[in-house]
What we know:
This protein is an alpha/beta fold. The chain is built from eleven helices and eight strands. A six-stranded parallel beta sheet has the order 2-1-3-4-8-7, with helices on both faces. Strands 5-6 form a two-stranded antiparallel ribbon. Strand 3, helix 6 and strand 4 form a beta-alpha-beta unit. Helix 1 packs across helix 3 and helix 2 crosses helix 8. It is globular. The protein starts with a helix and ends in an 18-residue tail after the last helix.
Amino acid sequence: MAQIDFKNKLNIALYKKLFLTRHAEEYIIKHYPEDEMKTPMHMSYGEEANAVGVIHAMDVKDQVLCTYRSHAIFLSKTNDPELFFLELYGKQNRVASGKSGSMHLADPDNGHMGSTAIVASGISVSVGIAFANKFKNNGLISCTFFGDGALDEGTFWESLNIACLKQLPVLFVCEDNNFAVHTRTQIRQGYDSIDNVVSQFNIETFSSDSTDVEVIYNLASKAINSIKTKNRPAFLRLKCYRYLEHVGIYEDFDAGYRSKEEFNKWYKNDCVKLQRKKLLENNIPKTKIEQIEKEIDERISISVKQAKAAPFPQPQDLYKGVFYEKN
């Protein structure tokens, strides 16, 4: 019975994080055309299970870096929609005060070290953090999220090589949605399986084609345990599907590079719907689920109201945070 209770608690916690990101982004989809959020939007819509599953398996003090498709990763790591919307609306806040926008979200105090707009550029930084963690012997790991397009960049292979050579505590997470913007993997890469290629290095490799957040959580837990017990890095490939256009809030099936039928196949196993169904099947009362959803929606609403009411940064704030400041 205790095991069932633990599993239900786990799945409720995972659902809360999924629902937070999904509904925060649904707010963005609805209100972005009002032109108050003056930042490009690379949406996590459809890929939320990757961030939620992996980050929930990490220690709260572990560090994360990610790409410009940062919403799910940022919210999963920080659980801070207040800071999230302050930044999207370009208002004063305790981190970037509107200078980062959607593409450079960060909260170092809570282990989210940054989001980078140049493809693959965060990978080497994460390896550097892992080197520092090993040097300090603090038991922490760093985790770097990137898309399959980053595999086409030299810095991925250089970072992978040094991490394996020095046996650094870093988790490489490849969110494989099969596209680098509009270009499919099959016409970009001269190999059939990234797992097979990466496995030739001194690294543990893990792979999943599932949209089930619990499956991803369990696999990420194995990968993290491997890092800590075998004292070597790990590579985690997660197959996924981006619902919306590469950048923006709209569908783009008329662009000619993918079809609505392809989307429909993935949407049948939508991670949020799948997790909600799982809760019901595990006898979590529908009223409890609806209460969770209501509380999260209310928190999003309050966060947005606070962001809209908050002051804009002052012109002189533009010069803050450019270089390291001790205080």
